[in-house]
Amino acid sequence: MEDKLTWSVEQQVADYTILQIDKKKIIELPVSYKVNIENKFISSFKTANVCGMVKGTAKPDSFIFITAHYDHLGGMGKDTYFPGANDNASGVTLLLSLAKYYAVHPAKYSIGFILFAGEEAGLVGSKYYTENPLVPLKNIKFLTNTDLAGTGDEGITVVNATEFPNEFVLMNKINDENKYLIKINARGKAANSDHYFFTEKGVPAFFFYTLGGIKAYHDVFDKASTLPLNEQDDLDSLLIKFNEALMGK
């Protein structure tokens, strides 16, 4: 029995079956039950990362990266669909907004953009990129990964804040001066999104996620109609100012 039903994807099939039941839907334990399960594991499912770049005006061989994953959980049978509005259409939206800005306002460094595939299956796309980079990883001066960026009325949490304290202080200083977000919380190292394999390869990186608002996560309720996107403009502005500071503008 579960308080909340969630779903995930994996890279292998278990040799047993787990049934999760919503506590709110059961008045008493059933004597028996019948389940019809159809499952097909596709071991060679093909997908791709999507990459782009705005060339720098002064130091084009130095890079700031902005990343997000564009995959989610797909469907389950013909009747169940996981929209993935917050996780992670919201991050994709933020990345595309920043790409639009930098296309019109090129920065001193080159700005790289990557939409990763296979994050939900174990950071597959970002791991592949770090093993097959399009630019030398040592040329990436900083990477900011955005995932779950659709709320924000309680601020954001920054993963790797304790790994890169100077950059975290810088981000907070910019936020305090401009009053973009109510709060920026610090979190340590975690292998919970696409920043991870970059930092394992020596690339300094943050991963941030927004706080507050809807609690839908890995379920059928994570849909666009309930997602406020109330801090997207402020996140845009914060990241633009943060990147400017990183480049010494």
Structural commentary:
The protein has 249 residues and is α/β, with parallel strands linked by helices. Helices cover 25% and strands 20% of the residues. The chain has helices at 85-104, 124-131, 165-178, 196-200, 232-246, and strands at residues 50-54, 59-69, 75-76, 80-81, 109-116, 140-146, 156-159, 184-187, 205-210. The strands form 2 sheets. The protein has a 7-stranded mixed sheet with strand order 1-5-2-6-9-7-8. Strands 3-4 form a two-stranded antiparallel sheet. The longest helix has 20 residues, at 85-104.
Biggest sheet: strands, sense, closure? Answer: 7 strands, mixed
- Helix-and-strand structural type: alpha/beta
Q: In percent, how much strand structure appears in the residues?
A: 15-25%
Assigned CATH superfamily = Zn peptidases
* Average pLDDT figure: 95
Radius of gyration: 20 Å
- Give the helix level as a range of percent: 10-25%
CATH class group: Alpha Beta
Based on CA inertia axes, which overall geometry fits?
globular
Number of domains: 1
CATH topology (level 3) name: Aminopeptidase
Question: Summary?
Answer:
The chain has 249 residues and is an alpha/beta fold.
List its salient traits.
Aminopeptidase; 5 helices; alpha/beta; 249 residues; 25% helix
Write the layout of secondary structure elements.
Layout: E1 50-54, E2 59-69, E3 75-76, E4 80-81, H1 85-104, E5 109-116, H2 124-131, E6 140-146, E7 156-159, H3 165-178, E8 184-187, H4 196-200, E9 205-210, H5 232-246
Helix pairs in contact: 3-5
